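Ticket #4471: structure output looks truncated?

Reporter: J.K.
Steps to reproduce: submitted the chain below (220 residues) through the standard prediction queue, then opened the result file.
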Amino acid sequence: MKKGVSFLVTVALVALVSSLASASDPSPLQDTCVAIDEPKDAVFVNGKFCKDPKLTVAEDFFFSGLDKPGNTSNAVASNVTTVNVEQIKGLNTLGISMVRIDYEPYGQNPPHTHPRATEILTVLGGTLYVGFVTSNPENRLISKVLNKGDVFVFPIGLIHFQFNVGKTKAVAIAALSSQNPGVITIANAVFGSDPPINPDVLTRAFQLDKKVVSYLQSRF
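Returned output as attached by the reporter:
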């Protein structure tokens, strides 16, 4: 094979692999692509049904209520108010979303991961102990205590958490690099899957007594 042809084939293969391996949202090819459930008054762009841009209105890009604390009366004493493409249809193809997180004293946003987004978090009030764990084999904990005005980044796909170490309520705002970041809460996924994971698998994986595994599964 000639060098010129070989080079072009290599470039094409690299581009193909890169496109297949990409985990981020695709770039938009038009100004707006407001998500729509029904194809009526819609056009098909970037693999999604979008509202006809001529029919786009301000409400397609608007959400109200992020100033209100969420209900933290739950087992983890925290609440995540999500603002993604489900709440703002105009976020479709724009590759961004955000959340508000409220924490009771000693409440937490338990270890979880976002399979499709990096997260940047800003503390608006209170004191949070936050961190993420790097991938195998190091599994290194990167953590820090944050106060009002501090910012911290959680890289895409890595397990991370926030814990209110203060004696007062805390609140934070986070932006995520996907219109639909997804969330996998580790304990819920492992011990609360439907149907349940065979306890023998978890007993060996976590080096626990089978009764302990059964108890944990009953909690989720």
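Triage note (M.O.): checked the attachment and the full token line is present. The longest strand covers residues 97-103.
Status: closed, working as intended.
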